[in-house]
Amino acid sequence: MMPLVRVSGVSKHFPKTRAVDGVSFDIMPGETVGLVGESGSGKSTLGRVIVGLLPATGGEITIDGESVGALHGRSRAKLWRHVQMVFQDPYSSLNPRMTVRDALAEPLRNFGIARGPEADARIRKTLDACGLPTTAMTRYPREFSGGQRQRIGIARALIVRPDFIVADEPVSALDVSIQAQIINLLQDLKSEFGLTYLFIAHDLAVIRHVSDRVAVMYRGKLVETAPAATLYDSPRHPYTQLLLRSVPVPDPRAEAERRRNTIDAEVVNTEATDSGCPFAARCPKATFPICGAAPSLTDRGSFHQAACHLA
Amino acid sequence: MTPMAIPVLSIKDLRISFPTATVVEGVGFDVMPGEIVGVVGESGSGKSMTARSVLRLLPKTARLQGSIRFRGEEVLAMSPAQIRAMRGALVSMVFQDPMTSFNPVLRIGDQIAEAVTLHGKTNARTLRARVADLLASVGIANASQRARAYPHEFSGGMRQRALTAMAVANGPALLIADEPTTALDVTVQDQILQLMRTLNERSGTAILLITHNIAVVASLCRRLIVMYAGRVVEDGPTDEVLTAPRHPYTWSLLQSVPRLDRAAGRLVAIQGQPPDPAAPLSGCKFHPRCPWAEERCKTVEPSLDEVGTGHHVRCVVRPTL
User: Fold this and answer.
1) Which residue segments constitute the domains of chain A, with CATH numbers given?
2) B170, B215, B242, B253 from A256: Cα distances, Å
3) Left, alpha or beta for B142 (phi > 0: left; psi -120 to 50: alpha)?
4) Does the residue B24 lie in any domain?
5) How far is A176 from chain B (nearest CA, A)?
6) pLDDT tens digits for B191-215?
7) Which run of H or of E encompasses B116?
8) Interface test with A, best of B257, B268, B276 (most A CBs within 10 A)
9) Chain B within 8 Å of A206 (Cβ-Cβ)?
């Protein structure tokens, strides 16, 4: 089977930072890949580069066999119809002066999909799929709660019937009791419309729940990727291990166990350099000069890769 | 009565109202000396309003009724001067965003020094040493040098550490932490929680932790209070509330959160929205979203009843969960 999305050696360098630095991975049709990392890891920048909101400064992105960089004009626009994005804050990603109907009709018109009554019919169907009443059509974003606004944001991505959706922190701005509604909705839509997801989040529990495969980013680089169960049960990279150890769990017994295994001293290795392993400065296992060189992502079992000299 | 039996903080029948809405109603709980108590709730649950009312940090239009006693003294009857004397010295507070809690144009060390001198003058050298000690105590290396840094030169985690150092500068009896780790990365969050645990163990500071993250409470607090729509719906020992919740809201909240330590099937989502405080609801505030709601839940507001030792629940149905 051909991957739906192929990210090969993609970089996004800004004048002072390498936000994304030589990242490669594939997303198979129908798969949900979870992209996890802390603030500044470059996960959101990578998501924006993949959907074409930011140009890459290096590498190549192929969607459905077509290289994104090689396409221009109409063929490029045609490709973006198949790729959509859901944002963290639906309030700032929706135009406050547009009714829900206008916000949803716009992409239909732009891509020449439908107009007038035909567009309305499709809007009603999409709103219904996203759990919103048709009466929502004549209302404005401010009239909705956070959870409902995120449903509108999802409806707007879904209305052009994309194959691939990049969801960037889609639940992190929502109340805990609403998060589950949106996660369930995204999972239902996936099976109903045969979608493929890149799900970007900092919440490791949410990522485990939604993902088939997980990719961990640290300072612009992919440090580990594996099927979700493998990554959470036997992480190989010291950074992934640190991340997983840091998450508290709402179970007193498991929490006591976790705390026994936590090392509270923060490691600082002064020998670490920018050209070496990105995690070397904080890594409890780092040895030099070995970790002074940049490790590449190598196989650690079936579909499991880690970028570490020591793991 | 022994001195130990007097709670550091005792809130009784607290009601906070604004001209347009009542945001907290009938809230009551105690925090004993050296205890860490967690308050969990979503936005609009009234958890932050309750926390801020202790230091009288509410907007001017807020009307407070009921009783808030700090070491037996009524906070609601205190003069502005008495409140100021209490803030920072006896009770202090750390907030979610350490960037906005510091003045960006003043050095971190000078701001901590200000907090120290507000409640007792001392000479410059002792003061510098005290500031360095405080920063070192929250795990900041090269403390005397780092004291000269400006807030923007610190990472988010370091700022939250420095803010915590400032908050405990005068050895308060109670530290109120309002979502102290929400803006932080998970590895940094773990360090801050560890720091709070250490402060509590070392100096016996009681901590009132306000959070939306039920797992954070599990990590730190022996007692847990769950708030919904301005009311306490369940409180009790953390272990008991998390493993055997008795209120449908607490149970649903635990079911709706994905867990790191196990792969779950479909999440059990809580349907609907939290109620709008401006549109008061009769009966139990959770009834429109509760799968166990009965006819009586729509009309009768349940009372907070004891269901076990120190375990209270505001529910008339009390289904087997």
Assistant:
1) 5-235 (3.40.50.300), 239-300 (no CATH)
2) 31, 12, 14, 21
3) left
4) no
5) 7
6) 889 889 989 999 999 999 999 999 8
7) helix B108-118
8) B257
9) yes
Test the A interface: residue of B45, B137, B186 with most A CBs within 10 Å: B186
Domain that holds residue B271: 234-321
What pLDDT score was predicted for residue B71? 94
- CA distance linking residue A73 with residue A91, whole number of Å: 30
Q: Please report the DSSP string for A196-253 in residue order.
A: EEEEEES-HHHHHHH-SEEEEEETTEEEEEEEHHHHHHS--SHHHHHHHHH---S-HH
- Determine, yes or no, domain membership for B288: yes
**Residue B175 forms part of a structural domain:** no
**Number of domains within chain B:** 1
**Around Cβ A305, how many Cβ atoms within 10 Å?**
20
CB contact under 8 A, A243 and B139: no
| pLDDT tens-place string over residues A270-303 | 888 888 999 999 898 899 999 999 999 999 988 9
Q: Which of residues 136-175 of A touch B (CB under 8 A)?
A: 145, 147-148, 175
Average pLDDT, chain A: 92
A252 → closest Cβ in B42, B156, B218: B218
What ipTM goes with this model? 0.86
Q: Is residue B305 part of a domain?
A: yes
